[in-house]
Design brief:
Layout (H helix, E strand, L loop, with lengths): L2 H11 L4 H4 L3 H11 L4 H14 L3 H5 L3 H8 L6 H16 L8 H5 L6 H10 L10 H10 L9 H14 L5 H14 L18 H4 L16 E11 L5 E5 L9 E2 L1 E3 L4 H10 L2 E15 L3 E15 L4 E4 L11 H10 L1
Parallel strand pairs: 1-6
Antiparallel strand pairs: 1-4, 2-3, 2-7, 5-6
Helix pairs in contact: 1-12, 3-4, 3-9, 9-12, 10-11, 10-12
The structure holds iron/sulfur cluster (SF4).
Length: 338
């Protein structure tokens, strides 16, 4: 691979993105976490507002997760931000608030995998570590016509080693940025702009005009369909029952109570087992929410609270700030109730 050409191309053609210009590991880390599952154009306004409010590790580690949530609401996949918050607390405690500078320590932080650790090492500390994301995998499999399934760990390991071997040790940061930029702007999933590509003279898939066949990815398993009974429970003062999630994807967020069931009778019995005695009022509306791996079909019913013995459940008025800490799947039910 003509590394010199790739790096030169990047310097001339790069998009001006704030996190690319920074060498602050904290700012780079925040960007990498926000970019997981999120497009650059969507994340940018969030990124800028986030760094204005939480300018360094200390300011992030010193607040509760509830204070962080409004700054990332809308980006989805909130578990990544919870882990980021836990990592900030660890850095504050174990490294006196200074971002660790070696791969092993960085990789050991919550929510930081091989890719993010490699990206921080190469772009913040200019060390020759591979950062293999989807863009880089696409470029490599096309240039070298690698047929293996990129979802297999063995293929990822092979690609990671290949990427590692190609890093320009004089400019590892530029190499990492350049590969990602090439994948994002030229070697796109469909209709790659090969005639403008700095690697087209060595790209085997371009030579054989089979770019569209790479990378090979086996079909994802179909999403799990989950039928839920979602309970809008109100009391005589028009307060609502919501519960803070302590486990799962939504840890730390608030949800209406719901159970995997289609039966009102079964739901009432389940609520009773939690110390919540209700009368069923009416069926309200059906909602659907699609996640990466599952689809929720939420049959929303209104119940009247008769008595509450559970202490782990909140009874709040409709304008309570806790509703702002609901995942989108339930936020749309809240919007419907307005
Ligand atoms: S020549 Fe085309 S397929 Fe090959 S790396 Fe460049 S953009 Fe991708």
């Amino acid at each position: 691979m003509s590394i010199k050409e790739l790096n030169t191309w990047y310097k001339k053609n790069k998009r001006m993105l704030p996190f690319r210009e920074s060498q602050d590991p904290y700012a780079i880390w925040v960007a990498e976490i926000m970019l997981q599952q999120t497009q650059v154009v969507t994340m940018l306004p969030y990124y800028e507002a986030f760094l204005l409010r939480f300018k360094d590790i200390q300011s992030l580690a010193s607040v509760s997760f509830e204070e962080i949530l409004p700054y990332v609401r809308g980006l989805g996949y909130y578990r990544r931000f919870r882990l980021m918050h836990q990592a900030a607390i660890q850095i504050q405690k174990n490294y006196h608030g200074k971002f660790p500078t070696n791969y092993k320590d960085i990789r050991g932080l919550p929510g930081i995998g091989d890719y993010t650790a490699g990206a921080i090492m190469s772009t913040a500390f200019k060390k020759p570590y591979s950062a293999l994301d989807g863009n880089v995998m696409r470029v490599l499999t096309r240039v070298y016509m690698i047929d293996d399934d990129i979802k297999k760990p063995k293929t990822m390991k092979q690609l990671n080693q290949l990427n590692q071997s190609l890093i320009d040790i004089n400019e590892p940061d530029i190499y990492t940025h350049a590969m990602m930029e090439l994948g994002a702007t030229i070697c796109k999933p469909t209709q790659p702009n090969c005639h403008k590509c700095p690697l087209n003279d060595m790209c085997r898939s371009y030579e054989h005009q089979v770019q569209h066949l790479y990378p090979f990815k086996s079909k994802p398993q179909s999403k799990k369909h989950i039928q839920l009974m979602t309970c809008i429970i109100t009391d005589d003062h028009n307060r609502y029952l919501i519960k803070k999630e302590t486990q799962s994807l939504f840890e730390g967020m608030y949800l209406f109570l719901q159970i995997e069931s289609e039966s009102v009778t079964y739901t009432i019995e389940w609520l009773e087992s939690l110390g919540i005695i209700v009368d069923h009022i009416k069926s309200m509306k059906k909602f659907k929410h699609v996640f990466t791996h599952q689809i929720w079909y939420m049959d929303v019913h209104h119940f009247k609270l008769k008595s509450l013995k559970s202490k782990s459940i909140d009874l709040v008025s409709f304008d309570d700030q806790k509703f702002k800490m609901m995942p989108n799947a339930h936020l749309k039910i809240y919007e419907f109730l307005k």
